Amino acid sequence: MSEIPTAVRPKSWYVYLVRAANGSLYCGISDDPQRRFQAHQKGQGARYFKTSPAQALVYVERWPDKGEALRQERLIKKLRKSAKEALVASWAGFNPCDA
Questions:
Q1: 39-52: per-residue pLDDT in tens?
Q2: How many structural domains are present in the chain?
Q3: Would the pTM count as exceeding 0.85?
Q4: What is the CATH number of the domain that holds 94?
């Protein structure tokens, strides 16, 4: 059985959290969270990082499509900071982008 060509496979989307220099957490979505984080580090893409630069990609969660990623992003943004920190602690460096 042959593998489905990359161009035909549905694109995965990711919800991610980035820790800013001031300790706050920024939540976003992307089809390539590592590339998006690098853009945040350069001050591109989100005004959020103009006042406190992006320091670390601390959480990544894979979703099968953009709609589901957007729904999860909204849920995460509604969480208290302590609940977001619990997500970060549970991630512990596991990167679903590598899976």
A1: 999 988 788 998 89
A2: 1
A3: no
A4: 3.40.1440.10
Domain-located, residue 1: no
Let me know if residue 41 belongs to a domain: yes
Eight-state DSSP code of residue 72: H
Comparing CA positions, the residue from 49, 64, 54, 43 lying closest to residue 19 is 54
**pLDDT digits 0-9 by tens, 13-41:** 999 999 999 999 999 999 999 999 999 99
- Closest among 29, 35, 26 to 68, alpha carbons compared: 29
Asked whether residue 18 is domain-assigned, the answer is yes
| 7 burial via Cβ count (<10 Å: 0-12, 13-18, 19+) | exposed
